[in-house]
Structure formats: C-alpha cells, structure tokens
Amino acid sequence: MSISRIVLYYAFTPLSDPEAVRLWQHTLCRELGLKGRIIVSPHGINGTVGGELSAVKQYVKQTRSYGPFRGMEFKWSDGGAEDFPRLSVKVRPELVAFGVPEEIEVDEQGVVGGGEHLTPQQVHELVEAKRADGAEVTFFDGRNAMEAQIGRFKDAVVPETETTRDFIAELDSGKYDHLKDQPVVTYCTGGIRCEVLSALMRRRGFEEVYQIDGGIVRYGEAYGDSGYWEGELYVFDGRMNTRFSQEAATLGECTACGGPTSSFHNCRDRGCSTLMLYCEDCRHIPETTRCADCEARLAAHPQDPNSGHLERPRRR
Ligand SMILES: [Zn+2]
Ligand SMILES: [Zn+2]
C-alpha cells in the first residue's frame, strides 16, 4: 500500500492575476491526483490538499517554484486524497471571509499592519513581563464562538461570532473597547484568521495586538495542556475535536443534560450546518430530532427543509 499525506499552507502575498494562479493550481493538482480545497485571492493563497506522498512532494516543489510562494511553509499531516470529497480551486475576494476585502492590504512581507507574531515561548515571556509590570495579557479568540465551547486560552475573550463575517460588527460594537490600551494576544486554529483579524483590530484602535505564530496547533505542540491552553481543539475534518494530551480538560457541556463532553453532533437534517454538543448518554438525540434552527426554518418553509445550509463534515 502506498503512503499518503495531507499538506496545509497559506501565504499572504500580492497576486496580480489570481485567475491564472487558480488555473495553474487546478491543472497541477489534477495531474498529480490530489484532492482538497484551495482558495486563491488577490491577497495570496490558502490550501489543504492530500494524495500520495510522492505526488504531494511534487506539488510542494512545483508550488514553491512560483516566486511569490517561494518561502511558503507547508504543514504536513496524516491523511490523503480520500479525506476530501473532491478537488476545489476557487478565486475569492479574501482568503478568510471577514467581508472587508477593501480593508486588507498585503505586500511581500504579508498582511500590512498585522499584530506582532509571537512564538509559543514568546507568549509566555510576554505574559510574565506584563505581569511583572502589573498588567494582564488578554487572549482574544479569533474563531467562531462554537469552537471555543470545547477549548480556549485561559480567561480568553470569546466574541459572539457564528461566522468570521461577524467579527467586524463585534469589533465595532464597543464591547471590547476596554482592551484598546491593553496587551491582546489573538489566536485561532492555525494562525491564518489572526493574520487578518489582528490587522483589523489595529485599524480600529487596538494599540498592542499580538498573534500566535502557527496558532493553537503550534502552541499545543510546544506546551500541550501544561500552559495557557485549556480543553480540546475543534478541527475542520471528520474528527471534529482533538486533544494535545490525556490531561486535556473537558470544557464542553451537553446541550441536553449539561454533562461534560467535547463531542459535536449534527442535527438529523442532512446538510444542516448546526453543530451541538452532546454527551455519550444523549448522543442519540440529534439523530432523531431537528435542531431549533431547522425546526424554525421548517415551520417557515415547509416545502424546502434544507435551503440555505452549507455543507459540513458529518460525524460518523
Ligand atoms: Zn447529556
Ligand atoms: Zn439543524
């Protein structure tokens, strides 16, 4: 049996002809038998592709041969083409859909005006240095609020976001203005959302913004469950949650009984994007019942129960 792998990567760099990059990437992946999802935008590229090890190595080499992608880091992980339903290569106005492409400026160094990058070790140095000065560092969650239900940094601020587009209204609401003169560290799964979020925050008057290089994933590799991270990490694949060690705390609460759990489940409607936490005892409930959103939608449009829902991985 041949060995397979997945690579994850992103680069913020100006692309004058995203459509040409899309065509090239699509042809390259198809010829190498790779599947996955790639977004190309005037601000750069973001992708996750999988296939046979030798093909993925070829892909990395070919992709890096293009000037703007020369220094791009690729994160390797277990898996293969079978982890993706298809190959999708699309041009979008933004790499991460905050809904404000006109606010984002990139140059060869990346996003202009973003927060200072910190390694996991530098995060600890910052917290200690500020504490010595009598100040507290605030961790600011750059993900959808749902993801933070099962894991987040200690005492983190978790904005009320259903999607990344909700961040702008949250930041402009005034709710977080008390943090504008405080040290704030943003974090997300792999770091890409914070590249943009930290710049949007700085534009809005947050004076001291940092971001964790490589996100929660890199932090967890360095400190596991013995640092400032607490709980489990939500991941965008069939597993849905992963932990850094056996000591990981269980922060999530079952929607039905309130018991501890980290397991997200889809409601019974196919294609429903609503994920809710259920414990082992109550996990049959979403398989037999619609979520509140679907019940409401069905009541409003009885002939079309699945309209408007996005595709998400369904837990097996
Ligand atoms: Zn329960
Ligand atoms: Zn539903």
From TrEMBL:
Residues 133-228 form the Rhodanese domain. The keyword Oxidoreductase applies. PANTHER family: THIOSULFATE SULFURTRANSFERASE/RHODANESE-LIKE DOMAIN-CONTAINING PROTEIN 2, THIOSULFATE SULFURTRANSFERASE_RHODANESE-LIKE DOMAIN-CONTAINING PROTEIN 2. The keyword Cytoplasm does not apply. This is tRNA uridine(34) hydroxylase. Keywords: Oxidoreductase, tRNA processing. It catalyses: uridine(34) in tRNA + AH2 + O2 = 5-hydroxyuridine(34) in tRNA + A + H2O. It comes from the Bacteria. Belongs to the TrhO family. It is an enzyme of class 1 (oxidoreductase). Catalyzes oxygen-dependent 5-hydroxyuridine (ho5U) modification at position 34 in tRNAs. It holds the Pfam family Rhodanese. Its EC number is 1.14.-.-. It comes from Nesterenkonia aethiopica.
